[in-house]
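help with this record:
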Amino acid sequence: TGAPVAGASVGGATTGADGTATVGPFATRGPQAFKASKPGTIRSNILGVCVSDGADGFCNSAVPGQPAPPPAPAAGCVTTGDDGRCGTPDERPALGAITSVKEKQRFPRGEGPRTLAGTVDEKGSGVAKVRLRLTRSDRQFRGRDRRRKYCFTFDDRAERLELMSRCGASRGSWFEVGDKAEWSYLLPSRLPRGRYVLDVETTDRAGNVDRKLQRTRNRVVFNVG
């Protein structure tokens, strides 16, 4: 989203509440490469930074008494060797994330979400398919002092929550929502009362599938009512 991220590791430092970190000192001058990481988040791209005191010949700086260095060449292609960049094979799955609903979010009855949305971090071969799975469970009174748990899965063809014979998010039905890096799906109406599990599965054009479900990223559990 572009919002500051606190608690991320970068260059041996940790970002503060404003999303910034101070790194260094450096054993060598010249080009340095950094990546930010934080559990439960999508990996960042590599950021190149050049280290110089401004008069040491590094980073296209001039040394006093010497001719100015030629212009620096354009930055080379950066790759991990398996991400599909720079002509390398794409062996990394495109990581999907849910952005419209937060983990453990609680909606008042009658104000359940209607739009499901998220993103895919894919800069290699491109996004081929995004699938969602939405399941609901709810306990209702049936008879005197008895409550029974009912479970449902969303059926995109019928455009409604269908009753399941057995409970469990893994028994729900998947449905496809397109091939865009920024995806969204409009439900026919606001979700009714219940406990929900929303999963997203992504496939890139190289055939890599992101099947590992991680809470807060591509699996979100929330409640309505």
